[in-house]
């Protein structure tokens, strides 16, 4: 029964990812990133280094995806965000190598406000009427694409 439940959950998650908007994908990535960091931190506390490492490595993969999807050519703030992602990714490497729970927590503290901001941006974007991508109205953008994602 457990395998059946896991298969259904996996299928549901695959459908959610395939049907998600760019903003939805971004928030899913951030949610999973924060889950990985929470799991890693818990594992580090009880010295389950293999579990901690698995979660920290997955978090690094997600950061790599965030970095590769960041469009530095369309958003002035993208270079700063790229630097922040690189700093956090290096921090996760150090947290993994050094079995450093405080470094994992520091990375989570840096990323949590970004997760919240992207969720808010996605929510606000859903409330606005649809319009052509990249066609701001009175100085406001209607798409996360102008923020360098999507």
Automatic annotation (TrEMBL):
InterPro entries membership: FliS, FliS_sf
GO cellular component: cytosol
Region of interest called Disordered, as start-end residue ranges on this chain: 127-150
Signal peptide range: none
GO biological process: bacterial-type flagellum assembly; bacterial-type flagellum-dependent cell motility
Domain of life: Bacteria
Keyword set includes Transmembrane helix: no
Location within or outside the cell: Cytoplasm, Cytosol
The entry's keywords: Bacterial flagellum biogenesis, Cell projection, Chaperone, Cilium, Cytoplasm, Flagellum
UniProt cross-references to Pfam families, sorted A to Z: FliS
Family, similarity comment: Belongs to the FliS family.
Record's protein name: Flagellar export chaperone FliS
Organism for this UniProt entry: Arthrobacter echini
